[in-house]
Amino acid sequence: MTRQNNFEIYYVNDTKALHLINFCTNMFLYILIFTGINFTFIYCKINNIRKNIYHQTLPSFLIISFLSSTQQRFLHSFVPKNQPFLLIHFYQILE
């Protein structure tokens, strides 16, 4: 586990575990979206750490997810333009 910029970053080397985490977090995100719960995401990219900050205040809670770019666009399409939307996206490099 590495700690950087107050984010806990976990490295998962097991492909099956990674797919399980991906499935569970995606289902959790979809439930949040379709139940209308207000949520905020933070986008953070490993290796070339950079942040896209669309919001000045810190989110009330953080969701860690493994999403493809298609899934990201899908989630963005559900978020109103006046609602801040940031995504935590940890890229996992499987050797």
From TrEMBL:
Listed transmembrane segments: 20-44
Source lineage: Eukaryota, Metazoa, Ecdysozoa, Nematoda, Chromadorea
Organism the protein comes from: Heterorhabditis bacteriophora
Keyword terms of this UniProt record: Membrane, Transmembrane, Transmembrane helix
Protein name listed in UniProt: 7TM_GPCR_Srx domain-containing protein
